[in-house]
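Sanity check

After download, print the first record. It should look like this:
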Amino acid sequence: MKNLVFVNCLLFVVGQIVYAQQNNFLKQTSSIIDTTNKIITIPRNNCQQISVDGNFDNYEWSNAIELSQPENYTIFLKADDDIFAVGLIFPKPMGELVCEIRITTDDKEVFLLHSSGGMGEGVSGFPSTTKFDLNNNKLWVSNFSTKNLEKEAEWVAAGKPLERYDEVYNKRDGIEFKISRKKIAGNTLKFTISWVRVEIKDGKPDFKQYKYPVSASLLNSDNWIKLILPN
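Expected structure tokens:
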């Protein structure tokens, strides 16, 4: 049981140290659109049907911009007049899911939107904080890991790997965010996304960190992607 509690807490701990070591991220290798100028214009497409359950049905994310990432991760961007939606598909087996989005419209106020074992939000300037308040998700929502300690205990007692529990009982493809455009001043923002893949190997947590763009820093938004939403 101690191991189960440890792993449940681990999702939040990992979220706090994302970006802690900026030079350890893998390099981005490809994208299906040209981001040479670090600007992406997102066309208007209906986001209302996105159910925020982590299941990437084709119709929900149809016509979304897709950004292919190393190791078979894919980022989706979509927007309409009311919603800015972000999706991240994880390859299988996915292990535990931790994901963070940062957005700014003025280089003064930075919103950190966090999803792991719950939702959390942080607000800061630059350098951007890695801290967030749990159960705080004003004007946005995401799916997140749900836990049942009794079922997890049965799973472990049967000799099954704990890091696969979430994949079996919380069937999903990744993480989805729906952000109200009331949270975004205007139709232009700077954006970066990071994620951590957590697995248990030999009884110890092992995690890999990723981010997009790979050159993004918490010191400033110079290397973040500029997004232009439908006007």
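If your output differs, re-run the checksum step. Summary of this record's structure: The chain has a mean pLDDT of 81.
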